[in-house]
C-alpha cells in the first residue's frame, strides 16, 4: 500500500513536471497551428484549444 | 516468422479501430481531411511505439517487483500523458519542422484510447519486450491505414447524394461499419 502511494505520487510529480516544462517551452518561430483540425475535437484541456478560442 | 504473423494480425486482422472499436473519437473527428488524418496517424505511431515500450518496462521492472500490479491502469494513463507532454516539448526544442506538422495532434493523442489499449493488451497478452515493440508499430500502422482510407471516403461522401437524415455522422458510421465487415474478410489469412 505504501509503495502504491509513493509510486502514484512520483507519477503525478512527473506529469506536473513535464506539463510545466512543456508550457514554458517556447514554440518555434513562424509556427502557426492549423485550427481547422480542431473542429471535431472537444478536448478543452488542450493548450491549442484555448489558443484557438482566443483567435 | 512469429513476429511477422503478429505484425500482420495486429495491423489488419485485429485492427484496433475496426475490430476493437478503439480510437473512434479521432477517427470521426479528424477524418474530414486526408492530410490531417495522415498527420494524426504519424503522430499516433510515434506515441504508441514509445508508450508501448515504456509501459512494458515499467510494468515488469517496477510494478511486478513492488507487487502493485493493480496500479497498472493509473500508471499507464499518467505515463502516456507525461510522455505526450515530454514529446511536445522535445519536438518544440529540437525539431521545429516535425512540431509544425504534428503540433495540434500530439495533445489529442492523450485522449486516444488506442494508446492505453495497446499498453494494456501488451500485458494481458503476455508479450515479451520485442513483441510489445512490434505491437507498438503494427497497431498504430493499422490505425493510420484505416483513418487515411476513411478520410478519403468521407471526402467523396461530401459530394455524394446522401439522404438528408444520413448526412454527416450517420453515413460516416455506416461507412466505418462496412469497412469493419470488409476487414473481417481477411480474418483467415493469419
Helix count of chain B equals 9
Largest sheet of chain B: none
Calculate the terminal CA-CA distance of chain A, rounded to whole Å.
47 Å
C-alpha-based Rg of chain B, rounded = 17 Å
Query: Biggest β-sheet of chain A: count, sense, barrel?
Result: none
User: How many structurally independent domains of chain B?
Assistant: 1
Low-confidence stretches of chain A: none
Q: Total number of helical segments of chain A? A: 2
This entry's quaternary arrangement is heterodimer
Count the beta strands of chain A. 0
The rough form of chain B would be described as globular
Mean of residue pLDDT values of chain A: 75
Q: Percent range for helical residues of chain B?
A: over 70%
Subunit structure (chain B): The complex is composed of six subunits: RnfA, RnfB, RnfC, RnfD, RnfE and RnfG.
Membrane topology (chain B): Multi-pass membrane protein
Family (chain B): Belongs to the NqrDE/RnfAE family.
Protein name (chain B): Ion-translocating oxidoreductase complex subunit A
